[in-house]
Amino acid sequence: SFYRSNGEAIGSAAAAYLASSRFSFGYEGSGVRAEDYRDGAGERINASRFETSNQQITAAYRSGHNLYEVQAALQYMPYEGFPNGDMDLTENVGAFINARYQGGFDWGGMNISAYYDHIRHQMNGNTPDRYPPGLSREAPSGGGNPRPICAIAPS
Longest Cα pair distance anywhere in the chain, in angstroms? Predict the structure, then answer.
């Protein structure tokens, strides 16, 4: 965990792992948030605040020559200001899932991988910090980005 006085930034991270000869599980997570920071003269820098959270889990299982793995993660950023541009991030969600199989056979090896990712992203002019009420320059963009992939390749 940490605290920074400029911008009143606070953050922390945690990780935990559990494993045996056949199974493993892991978790990693972190989060940070800060208010607008101040320059060397003590003046507030508008639209420099941010918040972000990252979470990830991983699990694996081995049976003989076969290995199965799954990994999933989520990043959430409700806001992030950009002081030098009219492009403040107002909502960002990124997630993915990866799955993998590795197998050994008399005829050779097999690797199969599949993944899915999704990103939702929105930006605007961070109205309260940049513009008077009623002059929002909101320009949302986004949608999903589903891209499932499956590949089989002998090794």
Answer: 71
